[in-house]
């Protein structure tokens, strides 16, 4: 959670590393990515707007009217990008180093209690509540949510988990696993295949 300017800079730096590759791109390479509208540049712009919204929500909004106005502006700016790219991520839900490899085509909805650091979500990923707003997943660090996977309900997914394409996860998943299927089952744990 972003609670200071230092936190904001750290989140932006890690998101930039994960989505744009090397941290120091240089002016011309950054300009080229912006000019040609690459996926990674669009993803970073969306995440940058999200991080600034989180900072305004957690810090600036408490500082009186000017902070509240900045918060309203950041909210407006972020929601415009959400609509443009068809990607919905709630504030304070994803940790730093979040990766969006394919933002064009969108269809990404993330409504979780929390998603850890250095995770990623691909096109068509839905992470959401099951029946009430309290029934939301908690996802650990270094998790990969691949194309079209769905994660529903009040479940916990551990660290270093890969959810295979088009899988539906409705039960808890321990650390160091690969899950696949509808409903998802563990197919590999700690590098070893699991017999079904």
Offer a few descriptive terms.
19% strand; 2 domains; six-stranded mixed β-sheet; alpha/beta; 4 helices; five-stranded parallel β-sheet; 196 residues; globular
Question: Secondary-structure blueprint of this entry?
Answer:
Blueprint: H1 5-20, H2 27-36, H3 39-58, H4 65-85, E1 87-89, E2 108-110, E3 114-115, E4 120-121, E5 126-128, E6 138-139, E7 144-145, E8 150-152, E9 156-157, E10 161-163, E11 168-169, E12 177-180, E13 185-189, E14 192-193
Parallel strand pairs: 1-2, 2-5, 3-6, 4-7, 5-8, 6-9, 7-10, 8-11, 10-12
Antiparallel strand pairs: 12-13, 13-14
Helix pairs in contact: 1-3, 3-4
Structural overview:
The protein has 196 residues and is an alpha/beta fold. It has two domains: 1-86, no CATH class; 107-196, UDP N-Acetylglucosamine Acyltransferase, domain 1 (3 Solenoid), CATH 2.160.10.10. It has four helices and 14 strands. Strands 4-7-10-12-13-14 form a six-stranded mixed sheet, with no helix packed on it. A hairpin with a 4-residue loop joins strand 12 (177-180) and strand 13 (185-189). Helix 1 packs antiparallel against helix 3 and helix 3 runs antiparallel to helix 4 (65-85). It is globular, with a radius of gyration of 17 Å. The N and C termini lie far apart (39 Å). The mean pLDDT is 89.
Q: Quick gist of this model?
A:
The chain has helices at 5-20, 27-36, 39-58, 65-85, and strands spanning 87-89, 108-110, 114-115, 120-121, 126-128, 138-139, 144-145, 150-152, 156-157, 161-163, 168-169, 177-180, 185-189, 192-193. With 196 residues, it is an alpha/beta fold.
């Amino acid at each position: 959670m972003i609670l200071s300017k230092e936190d904001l800079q750290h989140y932006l730096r890690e998101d930039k590393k994960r989505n744009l590759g090397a941290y120091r791109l240089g002016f011309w390479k950054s300009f080229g990515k912006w000019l040609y509208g690459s996926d990674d540049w669009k993803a970073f712009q969306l995440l940058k707007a999200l991080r600034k919204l989180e900072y305004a929500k957690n810090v600036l909004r408490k500082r009186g009217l000017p902070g509240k106005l900045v918060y309203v502006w950041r909210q407006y700016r972020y929601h415009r990008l959400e609509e443009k790219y068809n990607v919905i991520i709630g504030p304070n839900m994803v940790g730093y180093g979040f990766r969006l490899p394919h933002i064009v085509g969108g269809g990404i909805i993330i409504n979780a209690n929390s998603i850890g650091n250095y995770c990623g979500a691909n096109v068509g990923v839905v992470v959401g509540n099951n029946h009430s707003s309290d029934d939301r997943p908690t996802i650990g660090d270094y998790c990969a949510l691949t194309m079209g996977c769905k994660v529903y309900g009040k479940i916990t997914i551990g660290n270093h988990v890969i959810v295979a394409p088009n899988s539906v996860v409705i039960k808890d998943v321990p650390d160091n696993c690969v899950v696949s299927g509808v409903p998802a089952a563990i197919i590999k744990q700690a590098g070893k295949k699991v017999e079904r």
